[in-house]
């Protein structure tokens, strides 16, 4: 009988936010068309490490399993990406899984992405329509604007662009490329334009758009192919114009 093929994983684990990280190796039976999530589920069902010792199941996050929710972001073989679309057949082995280093680790591969949600609050990444629902339909967007706005709206707050950006770390307040792109999205919306200046102000403070080093890692790593560097260039121009206007109005 032929020996069953296996897949080896080396997973960086951490038992809690203040615990010391350590690496643990697992071997699981190979199946065609496996992705990283299905492999982690196999480890969860039978949490034995490669020495045969029973250990606590590996903790991770996932939801949609079709690269829409952004929950399963992690570093796979040195690159931040979505685990649900990382196919074992296309990964170099052993497969190395690590939590994203940009964010505080909660446990194993689970991180706290609160800094992303704080950034969205800072730039008011929403359209305030409270009390206006009875005013009838708003203005329609031209089709050409709607098409590229749809591309920007694909952002799933996954954190991959922040993990790839050299300007984002625990010593930097930089809000990251995803938030800058969201300002562009909402500031070009027919109704969102009403609060455009407030969002630009959110980009102009400490940790704002001037902290971008233009490495362009973000646009290369974004799993949704969002034109992040185009948004950054557009918002650089918009904040400059806004600053000039403020200077002459003061």
Automatic annotation (TrEMBL):
Cofactor(s) demanded: [4Fe-4S] cluster; [2Fe-2S] cluster; [3Fe-4S] cluster
Domain of life, source organism: Bacteria
SUPFAM superfamilies documented for this protein: 2Fe-2S ferredoxin-like (SSF54292), alpha-helical ferredoxin (SSF46548)
Keywords from the named record: 2Fe-2S, 3Fe-4S, 4Fe-4S, Iron, Iron-sulfur, Metal-binding, Oxidoreductase, Tricarboxylic acid cycle
PROSITE patterns recorded: 4FE4S_FER_1, 4FE4S_FER_2
Ribosomal protein among keywords: no
Protein name per UniProt: succinate dehydrogenase
Organism of this sequence: Ammoniphilus resinae
Lineage: Bacteria, Bacillati, Bacillota, Bacilli, Bacillales
């Amino acid at each position: 009988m032929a020996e069953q093929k296996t897949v080896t994983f080396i997973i960086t684990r951490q038992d809690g936010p203040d615990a010391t990280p350590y690496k643990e190796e697992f071997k699981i039976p190979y199946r065609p068309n496996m992705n990283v999530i299905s492999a982690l589920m196999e480890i969860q069902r039978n949490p034995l490490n490669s020495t045969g010792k029973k250990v606590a199941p590996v903790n991770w996050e996932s939801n949609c399993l079709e690269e829409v929710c952004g929950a399963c972001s992690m570093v796979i073989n040195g690159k931040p990406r979505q685990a649900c679309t990382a196919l074992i057949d296309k990964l170099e082995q052993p497969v190395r899984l690590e939590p994203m280093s940009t964010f505080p680790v909660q446990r194993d591969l689970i991180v706290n992405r609160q800094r992303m949600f704080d950034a969205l609050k800072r730039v008011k990444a929403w359209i305030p329509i409270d009390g206006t629902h009875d005013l009838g339909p708003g203005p329609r967007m031209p089709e050409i604007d709607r098409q590229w706005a749809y591309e920007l709206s694909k952002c799933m707050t996954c954190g991959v662009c922040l993990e790839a950006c050299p300007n984002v770390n625990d010593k930097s307040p930089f809000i990251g490329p995803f938030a800058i792109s969201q300002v562009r999205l909402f500031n070009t919306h027919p109704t969102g334009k009403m609060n455009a200046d407030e969002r630009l102000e959110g980009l102009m403070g400490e940790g704002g758009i001037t902290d971008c080093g233009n490495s362009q890692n973000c646009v290369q790593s974004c799993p949704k192919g969002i034109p992040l560097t185009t948004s950054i260039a557009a918002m650089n121009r918009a904040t400059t114009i806004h600053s000039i206007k403020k200077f002459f109005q003061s």
